[in-house]
Amino acid sequence: MTLSTIETQTGDAVAVSASAHIDPFGDSPARHAWRRFAQNRAALVSCVILGLIILACFVGPWLLPYGFDDTDWLSISLPPSLANMHWFGTDELGRDLLVRTLIGGRISLEVGLLGTTLTVAIGVAWGATAGYAGGKIDAAMMRIVDMMYAIPYMLIAILMMTLFGRAFYLVVLTISLFSWIDMARVVRGQTLTLKKREFIDAARATGVPAARIVMQHIVPNLLGVVIIYTTVTVPGIILTESVLSFLGLGVQEPMTSWGVLIADGTSKMEVRPWLLAFPGLFLIATLYCTNYIGDALRDAFDPKVQ
Amino acid sequence: MSGTTMNPTSPLIEVEHLAVRFTTPNGGVVEAVRDVSFTLHKGKTLGIVGESGSGKSQTALAMMGLLPPNGAVSGVARYDGRDLLGMKHAELNRIRGDRVAMIFQDPMTALNPFLTIERQMTEVLQLHRKISRKQAFEQAVAMCEAVRIADARRRIKMYPHEFSGGMLQRVMIAMALLCEPDVLIADEPTTALDVTVQAQIIELLRDLQSDLGTAIILITHDMGVVASLCDDVMVMYGGRTMEYGTAEQIFSQPTHPYTIGLLDALPHLDDDGDVPLRAIAGNPPSAGGAVHGCAFAPRCAMAEEQCASVRPELLAFTDTDGGQRQRACHLPIAELRPGVRVGGAV
Amino acid sequence: MFAYTLRRLLFAVPTILAVVTICYVMVHMTPGGPFDLERKLPPAVLANLQAKYHLNESPLQQYFYYLGRLLHGDLGASFKYSDWTVNELVAKALPVSLAVGGLSVPISMVIGIAMGSVAAVRRNSAIDYLVSALGNIGNAVPSFVLGPVLILVFALVLQDRHGIGLLPAGGWGDWRFRVLPIALLTIINVATISRVMRGSLLEVLSSSFIRTARAKGLPERTVIMRHAMRPALMPVLSLFTSIALSSITAAIVTETVFALPGLGQLIVNGAINRDYTLVLGLVVLVTAIAVLFNLIVDLLYAVVDPRIRY
After folding, report:
1. Distance between CA C247 and CA B227 in Å, rounded?
2. pTM score
3. Is there a contact between C208 and B68 if contact means CB atoms under 8 Å apart?
4. What mean pLDDT is predicted for residues C70-85?
5. C-contacting residues in A 219-278 (Cβ below 8 Å)
6. By the 8 A CB rule, do B234 and B47 touch?
7. What is the ipTM of this complex?
8. What is the DSSP letter of B111?
9. I want to staple B22 with a disulfide (CB 3.0 to 4.6 A). Which of B4, B30, B303, B334 is the partner?
10. Using CA atoms, how far apart are residues A72 and B226, in angstroms rounded to an integer?
11. Closest residue of C to A238, CA-based?
């Protein structure tokens, strides 16, 4: 936060300066940032762990003998054991917790991925357009963003889930509905900074149409900022989905997600703590890793240190 | 130590072999100031000249105990016989703002945007003089009028962002002089201001000095400013003193290639329009890199072989007029390019 | 200052109106919703609905009737609990939410600001590491995991001879029922607040005007309290709004975890029961409060920072 940029309403967020010029000695900002990122041990470890989690969630269920929906009345409420492949134990319907955790992870991660994609798409489009257009269009677009900032999104999400049902794509849509505004603000700030650079003037002077300028010149230079905020968005979206599911307003049966599993586990945690522990650990690990990676990326792209 | 202006009274400020080093986050060490010594007598003005990175600001900050936490200072800096560098915090605070005051380069950021000018001024008086808020207010208004701020009584209640740069610098000067300190350290007071305002500030400093008898250490990179105001001059480069003497000596007979370059670089009114500006080629050394030999050697047009490997000591000598000065250069004075033009005189 | 207030007010009103309108439209347009006249309803109920909600008239007219009722403070009636109006349900649930959520916000602010300040002034001390660690936990451990863990520890593990936990696991009653929910909310908020305060104060302490203050000989205590705190509090103040907003979510989760009969529970149950009008009324209410709160914080901002008023 810099004291000279107090702008609460029209949101001149702190802009990351991505240099557009290519250093003839090949030390491009991207390579520079990558080197800095690679020096952060916590981030590298997080990448590995996150990679393992993703791998486990998407490939694991194929390798396991149990389906996430298979009820086995002979094996109800078993604690975790190595004996019968119920490594995480089972729930009160005899369903294997390991598989359910992994399948739940699939859903949570998919929501995270799709939601983030949508968020980035809308946020970048909105922010770049507002920033580049300037003037009244910019003011109007950012007014809308400011208004949305004041609205408690969880309530709207709950209302929408109430009205429109809980199909998977609706969950994604609802969550993305509010997460794009942060991205839009930051992208607009960066666009404003870029707009003042000479190469934009050059493009304009040679008659390149505005849309093409935005697409070809501005958007590629937004990469740094977008990457940083994407890594902040992903855990947020996964968390939002988990909260909705925990409240019973997220994905519907028979689908499950970490939030649902945790809600389940909470009600039974006194006697069967593993039902809470394993999905909880997976969720916490995912959030921790994405946070560390996000921090490292932010440091790597930090203009103050360049 | 300088004996330049032959003042019999003991010096107000004595700095001996001051060095400042910073530790960087990845464990490296940056030597911003390597070895600096000077004295300041009552009522006199010392100009410390150099490019950015020469260490001149860090010298002043070190004296005042204002270095950031990763800075370490060695050497001696005495005010009135007491070493400022070893002092306990409480004792140093009694001197800072009261006997030795400092003003900074950018007045727009050097004042607290959340407090009125009045508050920032009265707190100095209330702290050091133990007077009431009302009395402090009157004295502050008087000082603002002394630095030629119009309508001072009303304006003093405003916030810094409501003033222009030039006016803020006047406020800073007023604030520094409230307790009538013996020494005023001015760190590039005109650099951030418009040229026209610069002249006003310099004139203001001169007038105030003659009214209050304050000794001034003026840190700047602008030789023109030095010429207007300073009695003695110390030229710094790469954290060391290159040349040290009275203003008259330095300007009429510079004895160091760097000083010659600085003076040469000043544009002159009677230059032809198509005479190119004589900049000193090259860039100043990045602070703290290991330096072999003379720091200025890479950019010196007259450098010899030994300059790159052997560091010239700062030595005292007597110049042709019988005055005492110091220089750090291997080249004999006679071999330096003669006939430096200063203000049209050859 | 007055003009600024007026301008911000003129901004808040359309926001609330927009939210109200959009939510209203959503509720009324949904097939299968309470106002879908395609459904087969007993004629008495139909007549009742028509009379009460002016369903015979144009949609726009109905909308204005709705706005009129809102301005009178009438949030509508519950769809499922047909004997209750939303206002009555709110009246019962609001005190619970205020007792927990309302109390935790000031507590977290005070603790968070204090911790963050100490951490900034005493670098690398125990408090400094505590603040960083807490920040990490608060960021990555969701409230609905931390809450059950607290229950596990304080209500289920730490039990006395009779098998009664140190603190209740849930429900509502005397002060003991408030401790864990308030603790949960406080931990989560303090994590963010202390980190932001620490970072902000550190940055302020390295700024130019702090150097000037020290150069004037002011004792460090005065430098921090008089010169550094106000600029440092600015980001924390803007955090206030986002904390208040996220407290709504946190409150909903907390009330669910601890089974507190507050507004959060009301909304969630209303959603699960598909009680559209109840949820609509609650959403409108809380949004209006949130927007107004936002406005108050913005005005506070202007009071504290002299550069903003114009």
Report:
1. 64
2. 0.77
3. no
4. 72
5. 235, 239, 242-243, 246-249, 259, 262-263, 265-266, 269-270, 273, 276
6. yes
7. 0.86
8. S
9. B30
10. 92
11. C142
